[in-house]
Amino acid sequence: MVKTFSCDFLGAQVRVRYEHSGDEEAIWIANVVLNGRARSIDGATALQTACARNDVTRSVLRGLEWMRKVDARV
Fold it and tell me: pLDDT tens, 27-71?
């Protein structure tokens, strides 16, 4: 079952969809508009707590931070 939620990254709303089966891993995709550009990233994260959403949120924010740093170098 796919679950959705929103979180915030540098003042921008991030829409996240994720799915997990069991207690091992979640697969996610996040969509956000940063600096006027629509961006989409995806990833997977190991579930380390009882709350998959919290684990996914941390993973999404790490991915967006990495993307922001890469964009700054270009």
Answer: 999 999 988 889 999 999 999 988 999 999 999 999 999 988 887
Instruction: Look up residue 42 and give its two tokens.
Output: 């995806």
Q: How far apart are CA 48 and CA 68, in angstroms?
A: 25
- Got the DSSP string for 2-59? -EEEEEEETTEEEEEEEEE-TTSEEEEEEEEEETTEEEEEEEEEE--SS-HHHHHHHH
pLDDT one-digit tens code per residue, 2-17: 999 999 999 999 999 9
* Exposed / middle / buried, residue 67 (Cβ in 10 Å: 0-12, 13-18, 19+): middle
Q: What is the DSSP letter of 72?
A: H
